[in-house]
Predict the 3D structure of the following.
Amino acid sequence: MTTTTTPTTPPTPETLAPPGRSPRRERRAAELEARTRRIAGRLAEFSARPAEQVLHDLGSTPAGLTHREAVHRLERDGANAIAQERPPRWYVQLAKAFWNPFILVLVVLVAVMYGQWLQVADTEPFDPKIAILGAMVLISAGLRFWQEHRSGSAAAALRALVTTTTAVQRRAGRGRLPAVIEVPMADVVTGDLVKLAAGDLVPADLRLLTAKDLMVSQAALSGESLPVAKADTRPATDRGQDATRDPVEADNLVLTGTSVTSGTATGVVVCTGADTYLGSMAGALVGERPETGFDIGVKKVSFLLIRFMLVMVPVVFLVNGLTKGDWAEAFTFAVAVAVGLTPEMLPMVVTTNLARGAVALSRRKVVVKHLNAIQNLGAMDVLCTDKTGTLTEDRIVLDRYLDVHGRPDTEVLEHAYLNSHFQTGLRNLMDQAVIDRMHEAEEVVVDARFTLVDEIPFDFARRRMSVVLRRNDLDGPAAAHLLITKGAVEEVLDRCDRVVHSGDTAELTGALRDTVLRTAQEHSRQGLRVLAVATRTLPADPDGAPAAYTVADEAELTLIGFLAFLDPPKRDAAEALRALADNGVAVKVVTGDGELVAARVCEQVGIDPGTPVTGAEIDTLDDLELLDRARTATLFAKVNPVQKARIVRALQADGHTVGFLGDGINDAAALRDADVGISVDTAVDIAKESADIILLEKDLTVLGQGVLRGRLTFGNTIKYLKLTASSNFGNVFSVLAASAFIPFQPMLALQLLVQNLCYDISQLATPWDRMDADYLRTPRKWDARGIRRFMLVLGPTSSVFDLTTFALMWYVFGADSEAHQALFQSGWFVEGLLTQTLVVHMLRTRRIPFVQSRATWPVLLMTALVMGVGLWLPFSPLAGALGMQPLPTAYFPWLAATLAAYCLLTQGVKRWYIRRFDEWL
């Protein structure tokens, strides 16, 4: 692995903002990163000072604060609470649900149409299109508001159920004896003395004053799956430490968000609330979220369509006004064209698509907090994931039991089991893994064969523990005691003078010692946690008097072998990763764990780790250099929360839609910056608040299914948008051509609105359509340029047959004057609606429609129904009100020929388009 020398002068970062990140947000992110570094530096200073100096600097004493001092500090510094995203008021959420370009366009059109109707309200009935457009607006915004408000309320209700307290030592007043009391975590202040025991959450950032056998789980902060040992400390001898300035690695600091797994400690609070190491990261999670790929894509497409409208509508208005002379009628017709150009069903189609996706994902145990995240999930082409619990099972198992040459040896397992089974202290994860490896029946047999005589408990100076056993009578006379020691390799090896070598006991020579160490180091390099097991036979008291054993008896041991532990990869992880790769999603592992452990897990699940990029290396890179490394690297190890967020932003700046899967405090900033943040229901609260999607099972297989659902949702949305935009553009193109040469309106404004309404109704089934399998294999993004190209090519294609219909009605059926305009308009209305609806089946797939790809039954039925209604309207009782008249029988053969020719031409244009641009939907 290559190493990077840290330059004496750090390079000036060249800021590279990914799409959707405003300069203001970039500045805020830089400020928060600087704040995190500043707080880390302050904690490092506390770590380096002697305990007495720390107490003096904080204005505290070994007896703790008085109640009055604690109250004063609470009022001065505020509650010990981490910044959290406060859910907006319901009415603010409701207003934001309407803040959508398409919805705003519809609102403006409704207002214009309502204003028009008010001018003639005394003589004209209420225009139903106003109510229909208004209903579309309310349904689209209402669905979005309901989904997001409901999930936010549920999260708030869960938080309200939890109240956590902590034990602090305080005095009633000066000169009074201290007492340990339970106070809410929010009431802890700087200078408080906090008592910690197994199972406690650490309420604030603490400098340890005393500690005994303290093990702390820092997985939420660092990503390491194993608990970390903190130094045994005493105030009298505590002079601080300066071996590291990383507060997570300092052995005399414990930080907010971690928890005690074993041991006891007393610590003085040095930082609370937003000034804690965790609090400095949480500040990045409050305020405006960065724009995602979905937000940017929708905005570009929206303004593309609005620009088309701003160009076409005035042109239609001027052409009709100048050629017909009736400016009021021209204005009404231009408004109808504006409605026709607006894909007014898009908010409803998008919301329905997203809501259907959310329901489908909920059946797969996936909770969608933000609806837009479903389409981002489909667009995702890079997934950054933590290792622990995602690729691995998040538990420690005994993987191997080996002799000193690295060969499997059941005798090593048996002795390790005796050691773990008979110890009376708190079993750690590795003891439990040894016990779990043996059969349940062994416990009964062992209890019958052995009796515990004594034990020498574990401590962090020796880094080993021993049990002394007596064989019971059924195994012969108890003439000797068996001492079994298990612990760190070098600490156990230092107490050995013999070794079990090739089945015999031999002296531990220098050569054998080197062989033994190579065996242990080889397995350590594979990412395994290695412990040594050794034994010693001691004479028993012939009178049976109880023996007292001490650390001095852990000498002249015989090394019998090693135990190797790991957090095993999930059985389905490799298959799930292959499925993601087949669907165009690259997986990058971003973990706080060491590179050796992470690289081994990557290899086991089929990921080539390549050359890992470490957090120390990332700190030497500016943004452009990090982008270049992130482009090719697969594994990022030993990274902190700030670095995780930088990796996400670098990948976004490289044009990727990035998903981030994590469950720890150290993942929260990256979850928020990602296009789609994914967490699990067992995650810490801050991670769940930052996420867009929550998995009820930490399973990449479920995530892969979510990706396909996201692409289906996006495919049906873009299908509606491209088809509707191109069809509407073709209609307006035809209107312009007809308006320039025909002495009457080619279609009345009311007819144009009804035609548009019928087509919109036919599209209500779009969310229930399917997408071709090859479409779902590739990540999909919003592409305004592709939509514009699709409109410009496919729109005029439909206009070809509009123009032939104009000629048909004018020359064949004699509708060439204002007296016969109803016949002309009826003929174009039917042809326009039928071609517009039929073409849905032609354009919904890049394959041959009805033969190689068929729409779902809801789409087939809805389009058939609308085409039937279109044929019926000129003959219906509504014909007079709509300005139509029955069409002659001779019209329908021409209509059938037009539809057939249109299908053939569209299929030909589609094939050319796909060859030319290598894309379709």
